[in-house]
Amino acid sequence: MALPLRPRPFQPGIPALAELPHETWARIGARLRRRPPADLLSYGDSRGYRPLREAVAERLRRTRGVRAVGDQVLIVQGAQQALYLAALLLLDPGDSAWVEDPCYPGLRAALLAAGISVVPVPVDGDGLDVAQARRLCEGARLARVTPSHQSPLGVEMTLCRRLELLDWARQSGAWVVEDDHDSEYRFAGPPLAALQGLDQHGRVIYVGTLSKSLFPSLRLGYLVVPPGLVSAFAAAIAATSRHSPTLEQAQLAEFIAGGHLDRHVRRMRVLYEHRQQVLVAEAARQLGELLDVPPAAAGMHVVGWLPEGMDERALTRVAARRGVSVVSISSTYASRRSPRPGLILGYAGYSDGSIRQGVTRLRRTLHEVLAGSPGVAGP
Ligand SMILES: Cc1ncc(COP(=O)(O)O)c(C=O)c1O
Predict the structure, then answer these.
(1) Fewer CB within 10 Å: C terminus or N terminus of the chain?
(2) pTM
(3) If we measure between CA atoms, which residue out of 317, 292, 315 comes closest to residue 303?
(4) How much of the chain, in percent, has pLDDT values that exceed 70?
(5) How far is the CA of 216 from the centre of ligand 1 (A)?
(6) How far is the CA of 181 from the centre of ligand 1 (A)?
(7) Which residues contact 37 (CB under 8 A, 6 or more apart)?
(8) Which of 180-194, 238-252, 294-308, 340-354 is the least confident region?
(9) Residues with beta carbon inside 6 Å of ligand 1?
(10) pLDDT tens for each residue of 237-255
(11) How far is CA 120 from its chain centroid?
């Protein structure tokens, strides 16, 4: 079977891969690889390549209001590994953790893999409902949140809720893991500062990833931890993966230090806002009442809401056959049920033409499912 040349719209979480500064990335990589110094080829520091840790700390201070020096930064292989390590180190098997409901299922899986009992906590318009979380499980040892841009609903956690969460963590000696995956793509006003910057008591573990700002197969992300936890995290990294690939870390360090990541993110912010506008307008034009797609203030995806009673499962199945990759909102709830049927539509990685074509395919999919004939081959 021939492999698709382009990713299928609307897979969530895929950045604009064609827009990467390929030349610059390749130039830095080629120079490093031509005759690499021995320290880039031998075993490296489990905490990460020093210049990258410094570059990440400087960038997080400047762009996210994170309180960090290079010594507190640990380089890992993405947000997934970061959360797994945090759970492994800070909790004992059987301990409970609050997780936003809905949430990106991979992160729930990381906690379960570490033997943690996951407590799904509802998210409302202000973010994770802390009062309800306390009622559900006051003794939780960790809360995993996406305060700057809730994944997948897109809500921004209010200051009041942030302070409530930090208060709980301080009082109960629990940890907050802040996943700041795509917050740099905020279209109205400057990106919101990270929760970690508000924390006066060293209870927040900050997690970032290059999967959204560069590309997911790079498998590089980072943790910012309170100084007293650095050596424990370094030991856990050493025990599980020794360290992340050093040549890629060095390439990334130079890329960041040269200002290329800042430039790329700035350019993508403009492009993603445009792509979202194309998707929202096209959905309104072609889908009307069938799919309500409100604009989102940030990120790389929107949630499109379906009429009550619509069969999300049949929809995603038929959509896949028609070359469209939509994820049902229900699949992100712990119970696999959403109060309202909906679809998560990623737009960042797709050209205007692909988005329009994707919406057309989605329209045909919706009509087919509505007609109650999901098995019928499409036009
Ligand atoms: C909320 C959230 N955090 C983090 C990630 C990225 O994880 P990783 O850095 O392991 O690629 C994703 C991926 O889609 C995500 O949706």
Answers:
(1) N
(2) 0.95
(3) 292
(4) 96
(5) 9
(6) 6
(7) none
(8) 180-194
(9) 13, 78-80, 104, 146, 151, 179, 181, 209, 211, 216, 221
(10) 999 999 999 999 999 999 9
(11) 18
